[in-house]
């Protein structure tokens, strides 16, 4: 297998290169945003740039990137565009810029929406240019750019401006391009269309000739484009050299066709046009497909197009076709061909009279039609309306190969899509893993197209939706598997031994050489299948490794996935591995197959089962694992071996590789998706169209749901009647009781319910509807019945004063339907979620709610808040592995709940015993839940009924107050409650207390009745299943757990009515969808009543490691984001309470009117200034340090030493002023910088008690969802903006701080970036040098924004700051008693050296002098050389490893330590073995 060439990485231009560019000079003259005096518009500039910069460089991405980044499109091209100045160069320049925006994944159409007037004219010219002759004005390369632009347009139908233009091209009138016979045939099939067609004709006649001609051109555009493509395709020779421009044009064209076919609005009429053009037949017979090198990607794209042209959907109605309907269509086609043959072609009688199953294979069709002449074949095709009729006495112009392929491909039997899927192996093999077109490397630039499905706004059917997600999820996992295989196998260093075998020169933690491999079972296939039901094998390895690694191998659990690898190296012993060269040829990798662990075998060869029993101790080093192989893959391999004489793959394996458990769930998720595709996916009717992206996006909003609920109990949501009135602005609130003293929560509210469905009324009626009645809420305060005399009987209450938008979100969440809540940072998303859960629990006690989140951390936050509300904890259950992280004493996992139930049962039976004793009843009523039940029925209820009959209202006279207490039968039992129980003030009050006491008793017996099952079920597993299926009302899990365990949950009969998803914008599309289907439908319908999604699509999306899937396939788009794009109504929370108002301004421009809660202005912590710092936020410019800005020792592993040192110096300064270290977090945008900063902290101050460590040092992406008082942020990059250009990352970075944000960056780079302008314009309005007030201690009394009374010092650069902090530290040491103790501990030489340095410091004038001596905060120039080469692989290093001083008090001077540098911390001694030296970075971002 040939190893693919490594693609080149696109190197972003540096700031200095940008400034030196011709483009930049022009930008500064004509359109740069920061230039005040600009030259007037000149069309020649556009011509020059296009010819000299773009065409001359052959559309080099680097040039286009520069232009787009300089805001060429926004500030020059589109701003000045008009029909008068339109030219080829102008059109092409705009297209290049739009394409570049799509490549960079930044919004492209905003500027066109602002100035839409000339867009129709522009678009028509694009269409004209796309059809122009290739040897004319527009070259093929330019037309490829135009095709890409058109593809982006067709994929942006949600933009009104684009849709209005594109609609002309893809609506019914485009059928003008069909040949007449085919048009008649199609109109006959659907009579309704005939009416529309006649209407179109009538309208055309009314048009003036010019407009009609224009309309005809647009309608025929796609037909003509197809013909143009076919002519280009035919010009590709079979063996002579071909220009890559032609190949790229063909690939982009097929991509456009796939995108048109994969969207229902474009497919509806276009599919017939495509079918009529026989494009697929032309492509399959073309020379390009036969060229192995050049045609590889084209062939893969063609397979995708073939899949979509035959997709199982009715184009007109959009309904999915069942297996039976597809078979019927196939039979109709064959029988119509047979009828034609019987009537008109006597030479085909045998064919006409055969049964369908006999003639519908490719072989038999070729046998019948192959001998016919070309003319006869043409006549058959024209009879079926596939080709125009052949005139008499004329020969056909089509060659025979084309005509035969046309008839055969149309009538051969197709294997159904679901069958294909079921026969597909789930594990990737070496063929897929290293195919660049399917699984591109990390260096995907976004230039070429790929044979990958795209996730856009709409999908054809649920099957299509699941299939695209299935393929992408599989490929994204494959990419990660490839990285793991390359890492493990290259560490093992496979070399060829002298005798031609394999010898391993290294070792890897995650891989072991296989000692023996045997297939032990191949089970018979099921009926109707041709693959075995299961295949099992035994793998033996020798675990001669360290104990902890041995434990990891022995700890492999059932269902863990491993990979079996065959390597046959050709390189001799001792050859070095070069990571930059292709991997496969270096290690000689031949095969990769997946397997799933069943278990390890014991001494007797039996599988050791997972369970509570301790595992047997096995002697020796040899271990054998029983594994399941993929039956589909096994069948394919064996067929290949038998039919083609290939070698048996299963006799060659010599390496087994395992993966980290966290990343190894791909097979379970893929199996889940495949199972969903094999079942009738029942999504609730009210959700079906919205998930596919069609219909009215607001149709699932509660206001349009037919089962809207009029009266809801808001329980403890409102704190007072005033709060309630403020929560419904614009509504009249009518309270049912007049007395203000009784107007206290909880409240029941009756809303005016409008029926969602009804006939359209006239405008006037609609206005009348919004009358007083429609705006009136009827509020009824009600009293929660007394629950008993003990203090813990009082219900827990909500204490949060929700805003009116939060109340709207809570109201929507309680109603049936789809609720989407957009929660900007700090707006109380979790509080809203918890209140919705609590209200549903109280309003619908019989319903069950499923909570799904992206991370365990979010689930834990939710649970901690749920426990503070009035929810009985026996109804809570937490599934998955995160429950151990819950910061509560209580265990909410399955077994934790079982233990709780058992313990609670004993407690309650003790209470029963006490009650029995207090009533003087003999016997043992508290033996079991059952006996307790009888005791309640015969002893407790009888006494209560007797008591009620004594004290109840008899006739007109009110009973005496004292009687309530006198006759009460349970005085002795309640003797331990606060006394007196009865107040004796009024009969009603005391009667309510008596009933409360009885409710308390009754609840004991109700719970015991529920716990009876745990007496009958003996095993912990059965008890936990019972809890899950019957007892729990609120069940929480992560989306990954839901995907992994769907099969088990459905099998158990798990049921739920509502789903609430937190962090919904961070969950992959498919992982959001699976939780909707964790239960079997009831009578063919889903039980699901509510779906509440809470998230923020303006923050970071799900993490996709491979850039190609992230950008090209749009896999990072969450379902939440897609719903927002489609136009599903959202509730936008609009008041934040996290950050100072000034900090909120840095990101609130991204949201609809996001304001501040009152406490942000009122609380002292928000109004007080940050001590020692002049500003509450500042952007600090960091220039190159020792001539170096950013460096990249490994791909995407960016570091910037100057910024790292500056950030740490500011952190130390703040700690020395008195800021608590745990209130400060250090964030950065790249992993490399994170490691570098951690190392510097270890060196400078990590073990110093005066300073300490920050709360966290991590990346912005990892810190999403968290916050801290002070954030120090390093942006790292100095050459190109990098991924901060994604505004979502900027929003996360700006919104983590509550009180202070200090950003270190190269200002000249970031201030030019169009997307970041709103934030950076505020940041650059303040001075770009750090302003500090060193004499102001923490905390300060100075108000924020006030001029300080102390002197302000301006820090010009990082060395000055480092110098300053050093002096400050030494001064602090000297002026404390602590310093004298330190003197006693230090060796004399060190003290003198320290003092000497300090004396010199005071005299230093220049930065150069400071740099030479100040070695201890900043590395010397000789040391830095290595820091930019080696990434910091080590994070938590001990002082001895980092070379830090062993004295905790002193900030170590580098001269005293080993000559390594923070950021290039020397690896620990044991890692100096060759296999560990190349430790890979944890992440590439």
Descriptive account of the structure:
By secondary structure, the protein is an alpha/beta fold. The chain has a seven-stranded parallel beta sheet with strand order 15-16-14-17-18-13-19. Strand 17 (1058-1061), helix 45 (1069-1073) and strand 18 (1090-1095) form a beta-alpha-beta unit. Helix 6 crosses helix 9. The longest helix has 31 residues, at 462-492. It is globular and about 120 Å long. Residues 1-8, 756-769, 883-887 and 1387-1485 have low confidence and may be disordered.
Oligomer: single chain
Which percent band covers the strand fraction? Answer: 5-15%
If you compute it from the alpha carbons, what radius of gyration comes out, rounded to the nearest whole angstrom?
A: 37 Å
Which percent bin holds the helix content? 40-55%
What summary fits the major beta sheet? 7 strands, parallel
Note the gap between the termini.
31 Å
In total, the number of strands is 30
Based on secondary structure, the structural category is alpha/beta
Unreliable residue stretches: 1-8, 756-769, 883-887, 1387-1485
Instruction: Give the mean pLDDT.
Output: 84
List the total number of helices.
62
């Amino acid at each position: 297998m040939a190893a693919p060439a490594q693609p080149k990485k696109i190197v972003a231009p540096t700031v200095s290169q940008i400034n030196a560019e011709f483009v930049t000079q022009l930008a500064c003259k004509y359109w740069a945003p920061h230039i005040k005096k600009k030259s007037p518009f000149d069309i020649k500039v556009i011509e020059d740039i296009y010819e000299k910069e773009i065409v001359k460089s052959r559309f080099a991405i680097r040039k286009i990137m520069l232009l787009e980044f300089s805001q060429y499109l926004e500030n020059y091209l589109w701003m000045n565009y008009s029909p008068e100045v339109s030219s080829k160069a102008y059109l092409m320049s705009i297209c290049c810029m739009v394409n570049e925006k799509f490549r960079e994944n930044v919004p492209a159409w905003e500027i066109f929406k602002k100035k839409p007037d000339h867009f129709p004219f522009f678009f028509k010219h694009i269409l004209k240019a796309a059809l122009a002759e290739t040897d004319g004005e527009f070259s093929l390369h330019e037309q490829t750019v135009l095709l890409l632009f058109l593809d982006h347009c067709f994929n942006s139908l949600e933009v009104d401006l684009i849709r209005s233009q594109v609609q002309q091209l893809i609506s019914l009138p485009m059928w003008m391009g069909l040949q007449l016979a085919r048009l008649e045939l199609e109109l006959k099939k659907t009579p309704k269309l005939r009416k529309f067609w006649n209407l179109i004709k009538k309208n055309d006649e009314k048009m003036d000739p010019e407009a009609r001609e224009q309309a005809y051109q647009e309608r025929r555009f796609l037909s003509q484009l197809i013909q143009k493509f076919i002519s280009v395709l035919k010009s590709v020779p079979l063996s002579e050299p071909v220009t890559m421009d032609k190949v790229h044009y063909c690939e982009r064209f097929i991509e456009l066709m796939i995108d048109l076919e994969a969207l229902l609005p474009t497919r509806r009429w276009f599919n017939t046009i495509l079918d009529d053009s026989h494009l697929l037949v032309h492509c399959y017979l073309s020379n390009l497909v036969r060229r192995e090198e050049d045609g590889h990607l084209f062939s893969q794209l063609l397979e995708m197009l073939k899949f979509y042209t035959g997709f199982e959907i009715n184009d007109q109605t959009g309904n999915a076709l069942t297996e039976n309907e597809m078979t019927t269509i196939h039979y109709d086609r064959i029988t119509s061909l047979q009828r034609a043959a019987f009537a008109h072609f006597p030479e085909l009688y045998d064919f006409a009279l055969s049964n369908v199953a006999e003639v519908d294979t490719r072989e038999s069709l070729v046998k019948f039609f192959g001998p016919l002449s070309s003319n006869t074949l043409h006549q058959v095709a024209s009879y079926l309306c596939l080709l125009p009729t052949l005139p008499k006495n004329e020969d056909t112009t089509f060659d025979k190969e084309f005509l035969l392929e046309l008839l055969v491909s149309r009538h051969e039997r197709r294997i159904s899509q679901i069958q294909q899927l079921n026969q597909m192996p789930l594990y990737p093999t070496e063929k897929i893993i290293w195919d660049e077109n399917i699984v591109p490397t990390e260096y995907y630039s976004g230039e070429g197209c790929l044979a990958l499905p795209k996730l856009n706004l709409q999908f054809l059917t649920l099957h299509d939706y699941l299939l695209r997600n299935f393929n992408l999820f599989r490929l994204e996992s494959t990419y990660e598997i490839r990285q793991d295989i390359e890492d493990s196998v290259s560490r093992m260093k496979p070399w060829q031994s002298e005798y031609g075998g394999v010898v391993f020169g290294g070792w890897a933690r995650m891989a072991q050489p296989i000692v023996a491999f045997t297939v032990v079972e191949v089970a018979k296939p099921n009926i109707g299948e041709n693959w075995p039901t299961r295949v099992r094998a035994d793998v033996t390895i020798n675990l001669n490794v360290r104990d902890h690694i041995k434990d990891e191998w022995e700890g492999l659990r059932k269902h863990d996935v491993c990979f079996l690898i065959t390597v046959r190296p050709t390189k001799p012993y001792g050859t070095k591995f070069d990571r930059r060269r292709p991997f496969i040829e270096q290690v000689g990798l031949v095969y990769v197959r997946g397997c799933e662990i069943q278990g390890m075998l014991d001494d007797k060869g039996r599988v050791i089962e997972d369970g509570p029993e301790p595992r047997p101790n096995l002697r020796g080093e040899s271990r054998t694992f029983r594994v399941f192989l993929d039956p589909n893959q096994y069948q394919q391999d064996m067929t290949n071996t038998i039919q083609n004489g290939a070698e048996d793959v299963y006799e060659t394996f010599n390496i087994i590789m395992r993966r980290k458990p966290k990343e190894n769930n791909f097979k379970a998720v893929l199996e889940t998706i495949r199972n969903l595709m094999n079942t009738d996916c029942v999504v609730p009717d009210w959700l079906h169209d919205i998930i596919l992206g069609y219909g009215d996006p607001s149709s699932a909003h509660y206001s349009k749901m037919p089962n809207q609920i009029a009266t809801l109990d808001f329980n403890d949501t409102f704190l007072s009647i005033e709060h309630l009135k403020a929560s419904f602005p614009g509504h009249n609130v009518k309270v049912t009781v007049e007395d203000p003293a009784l107007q206290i929560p909880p409240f029941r509210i009756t809303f005016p319910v409008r029926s969602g469905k009804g006939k359209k009324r006239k405008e006037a009626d609609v206005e009348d509807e919004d009358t007083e009645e429609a705006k009136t809420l009827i509020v009824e305060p009600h009293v929660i019945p007394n629950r008993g005399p003990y203090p813990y009987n009082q219900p827990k209450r909500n204490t949060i004063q929700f805003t009116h938008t939060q109340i709207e979100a809570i109201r929507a969440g309680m109603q049936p339907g789809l609720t989407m809540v957009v929660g900007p940072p700090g707006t109380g998303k979790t509080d809203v979620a918890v209140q919705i859960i609590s209200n549903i629990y109280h309003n619908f006690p019989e319903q069950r709610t499923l909570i799904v989140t992206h991370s365990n951390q979010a689930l834990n936050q939710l649970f901690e808040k749920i426990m503070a509300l009035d929810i009985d904890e026996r109804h809570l259950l937490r599934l998955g592995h995160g429950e151990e992280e819950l910061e509560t004493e209580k265990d909410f996992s399955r077994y934790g709940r079982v233990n709780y139930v058992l313990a609670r049962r004993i407690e309650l039976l003790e209470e029963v015993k006490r009650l029995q004793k207090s009533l003087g009843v003999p016997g043992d009523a508290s033996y079991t839940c059952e006996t307790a039940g009888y005791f309640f029925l015969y002893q407790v209820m009888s006494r209560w009924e007797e008591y009620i009959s004594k004290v109840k209202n008899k006739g007109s006279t009110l009973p005496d107050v004292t009687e309530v207490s006198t006759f009460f039968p349970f005085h002795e039992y309640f003797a331990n409650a606060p006394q007196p129980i009865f107040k004796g003030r009024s009969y009603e009050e005391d009667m309510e207390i008596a009933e409360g006491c009885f409710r308390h008793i009754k609840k004991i017996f109700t719970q015991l009745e529920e716990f009876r099952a745990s007496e009958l079920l003996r095993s912990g597993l059965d008890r936990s299943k019972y809890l899950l299926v019957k007892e729990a009302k609120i069940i929480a899990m992560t989306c990954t757990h839901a995907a992994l365990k769907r099969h088990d949950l459905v099998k158990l009969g798990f049921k739920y009515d509502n789903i609430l998803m937190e962090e919904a914008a961070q969950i992959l599309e498919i992982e959001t969808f699976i939780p909707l289907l964790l239960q079997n439908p009831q009578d063919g319908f889903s039980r699901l009543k509510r779906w509440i999604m809470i998230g923020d699509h303006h923050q970071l999306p799900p993490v996709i490691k491979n850039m190609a899937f992230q950008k090209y396939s749009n896999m990072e788009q969450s379902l939440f984001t897609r719903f927002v794009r489609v136009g599903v109504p959202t509730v936008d929370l609009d008041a934040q309470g996290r950050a100072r108002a000034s900090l909120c301004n840095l990101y609130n421009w991204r949201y609809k009117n996001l304001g501040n809660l009152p406490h942000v202005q009122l609380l002292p912590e928000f109004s007080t200034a940050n001590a020692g710092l002049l500003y509450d936020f500042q952007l600090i410019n960091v220039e190159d340090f020792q001539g170096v800005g950013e460096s990249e020792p490994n791909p995407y592993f960016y570091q910037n030493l100057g910024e790292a040192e500056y950030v740490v110096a500011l952190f130390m300064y703040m700690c020395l002023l008195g800021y608590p270290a745990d209130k400060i977090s250090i964030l950065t945008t790249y992993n490399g910088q994170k490691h570098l900063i951690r190392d510097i902290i270890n060196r400078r101050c990590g073990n110093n008690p005066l300073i300490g460590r920050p709360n966290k040092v991590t990346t912005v992406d990892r810190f999403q969802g968290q916050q801290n008082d002070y954030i120090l942020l390093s942006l790292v990059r100095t050459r190109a903006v990098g991924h901060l250009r994604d505004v979502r990352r900027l929003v996360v970075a700006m919104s983590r701080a509550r009180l202070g944000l200090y950003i270190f960056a190269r200002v000249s780079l970031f201030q030019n970036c169009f997307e970041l302008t709103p934030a950076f314009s505020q940041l650059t309005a303040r001075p770009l040098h750090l302003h500090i007030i060193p004499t102001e201690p923490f905390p300060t009394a100075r108000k924020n924004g006030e001029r300080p009374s102390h002197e302000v010092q301006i820090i010009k650069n990082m060395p000055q700051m480092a110098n300053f902090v050093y002096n400050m530290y030494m001064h602090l040491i000297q002026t404390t008693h602590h310093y004298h103790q330190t003197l006693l501990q230090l060796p004399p030489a060190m003290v003198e050296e320290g003092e000497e340095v300090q004396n010199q410091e005071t005299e230093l004038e220049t930065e150069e002098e400071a740099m030479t001596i100040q070695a201890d905060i900043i590395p010397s120039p000789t040391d830095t050389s290595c820091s930019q080469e080696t990434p910091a692989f080590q994070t938590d290093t001990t002082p001895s490893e980092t070379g830090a001083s062993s004295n905790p008090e002193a900030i170590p001077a580098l001269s005293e330590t080993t000559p390594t540098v923070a950021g290039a911390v020397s690896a620990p001694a044991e890692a100096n073995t060759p296999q560990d030296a190349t430790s890979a970075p944890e992440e590439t971002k």
